[in-house]
Amino acid sequence: MRPAIIDQDTGRELWRADQCADHAGVAAGTWRSYVNRGHAPAAVGELDARTPLWDAADIREWAGR
After folding, report:
1. pLDDT tens digits for 35-48?
2. CA 1 to CA 64: how far, in whole Å?
3. DSSP result, 50-63
4. CA distance 13 to 39
5. d(Cα 12, Cα 31) in Å, to the nearest integer?
6. In the chain, which end has fewer C-beta atoms inside a 10 angstrom radius, N or C?
7. N- to C-terminal Cα separation, the chain
């Protein structure tokens, strides 16, 4: 099973940091570093105060896959 987070307003799939890192082929800490330095897309929302979310389509485009 592969549960997904879908934005009910836009229908877009949203990913947590670990999913973004997996897709980019980097460690989660490296992903966070990319984001903090402005080298990766910014989060588009939050699941809760500790879980930022990224638009999966943005990450796929950024990673070139």
Report:
1. 999 999 999 999 99
2. 26
3. TEEEEEHHHHHHHH
4. 21
5. 21
6. N
7. 22
Residue type, 3: P
Tokens for 27, please give them: 């460690």
* Exposure of 13 in the CB half-sphere (CA atoms within 13 A): 11
pTM for this prediction? 0.91
**DSSP-assigned letters across all residues of 4-27:** -EE-TTT--EEE-HHHHHHHHTS-
Return the residue matching tokens 């490296």: 30
Q: Which two tokens stand for residue 31?
A: 């992903």
List the chain pLDDT tens, one digit each, 65 residues. Answer: 888 999 999 999 999 999 999 999 999 999 999 999 999 999 999 999 999 999 999 999 999 96
